[in-house]
Amino acid sequence: MALERTLSIIKPDATKRNLTGKINAVFEDAGLRIVAQKRIQLSEKQAGAFYAVHAARPFYASLVASMIAEPVVVQVLQAENAVAKHREVMGATNPADAAEGTVRKLFAESIEANSVHGSDSLENAKNEIAFFFAETEIFA
Ligand code: RTP
Ligand code: MG
């Protein structure tokens, strides 16, 4: 297994409910190291560009609106097998399907207000990390 980095976002529904620390505790307990982190307010343009892959989906406008409703916390997480490890600890997209102990089972309100984002492949992780962070902002 290789040491990987993945991009994590603590979404507006979670920052609004003051859950950043509790979510970070789940990540850290799973062995994911937070090697960069910042709280930012996404613009509509930024959120639209970040989710461009979903532009044709019926939920796109609502997804973009939900991502700019409150600040988000963007993070780089590092671990062996970080992409898969993070996806596992986030749980299924729809919290109704999420396994016990996962972030989405513990905290998500709905499929849209599902508290966290995580890169779904190593290649996407590299692009998504570069979207938010300069290499000089990441400290392992
Ligand atoms: P994410 O990208 O946020 O880590 O989540 P994911 O891979 O599990 O889900 P994805 O299919 O990439 O969808 C991105 C986000 O869009 C919202 N969504 N809404 N209303 C719907 O049917 C629907 N489907 C997806 C979710 O907030 C999901 O996290
Ligand atoms: Mg996704």
TrEMBL record:
According to its UniProt record, this protein's enzyme class is transferase
Is Secreted included in the keywords of this UniProt record? no
Cofactor(s) for this protein? Answer: Mg(2+)
Q: Name one GO molecular function term.
A: ATP binding
Which InterPro entries has this protein been placed in? NDK-like_dom, NDK-like_dom_sf, Nucleoside_diP_kinase, Nucleoside_diP_kinase_AS
Its EC number is 2.7.4.6
This protein is called Nucleoside diphosphate kinase
Protein source organism: Neokomagataea tanensis
Encoding gene (name) = ndk
